[in-house]
Amino acid sequence: MAEKLRVILERAEREHSAKVLGVAPTASLEQVKERFRFLTQAYQPGKFSTDEQRRAAEQEFERISRAYLLLSKAAAGGKHQAAKLMGVSLSATARELKERFRFLSHAFHPDKFQTQVQRAAAEQEFKAIKEAYDVLSKEAQDSADAEPTATRSSPSKEDGSRAAERSRESAPSHTPSENRSRWERMARVGLILVAMLGLLGGVWQFWPQKAARSPGKPAALHPEAWRKVMSDLEAATHLENGRSQLRLGLRYRDGDGLPKDFKEAAKWFREAASQGIALAQFELGEALSAGRGVAADPKEAAQWHRKAAEQGEVRSQVILGYNYEQGIGVEKNPEESLRWWLKAAYHGNAEAQHRVALHYLNLGSGNPDVSIEWWRKAAEQGHSEAQQRFAAALESGDGTPKNLVESYKWYSLAQAGGNGGCEAALSRLRALMTPEQLAASQRLVMEWRRKGDGR
Question: What is the pTM for the complete model shown?
Answer without folding.
Answer: 0.51
